[in-house]
Amino acid sequence: MIKIGILGDIGSGKSFIAKQFGYPVFDADNEVRKIYRKDKKCFIKLNKAIPKHILSFPIKKKEIAKAILSNKKNLKKIINIVHPLVRLKMNKFVKKKKNRKIIIFDIPLLLENKLNRKDYILVYIEANKAKIIKNLIKRKNYNSKIIKILKKSQLSLNYKKKKSKFIINNNFTKQSVKKNVSLIKKKILKK
Description:
alpha/beta; five-stranded parallel β-sheet; 191 residues; globular; 9 helices; Rossmann fold
């Protein structure tokens, strides 16, 4: 099984590009949303850790955002509770997809949380900063302060780029992305 990790800046198009490979994608952001919506035990732990902010179940993104904005240490508390749950879901995903030729990991903190192994093929998504900001502003819960805090918890983009075997320059056109993904798939499957 070939494991591909998608890396890049917040808003660079990682999720869209991950889907273009046409193989099963483990989408960590989507898994976190599910945890906030369905995992009562997670709610209880978060409510205990930051009771002023996590008030009701299902957990609301606004509550998470307020907690992070009020005290940067709250991000660490949230990560310590939520990330082990995401890791469990990732391991189940890998077992469930063990017969697939390729699986894709769309995990914002893949390197930071040491979720990747040496055999992972890392693909870095490079995108124009102005276009990234334009895309981020379109998001429902966009908050520039939250994004700055989240970026500080991540490794540098240069480091991620150096660690990657392939780089896709995302100009946010479907045709260009599909062509780049197709070339990378051919190179990977040749091995």
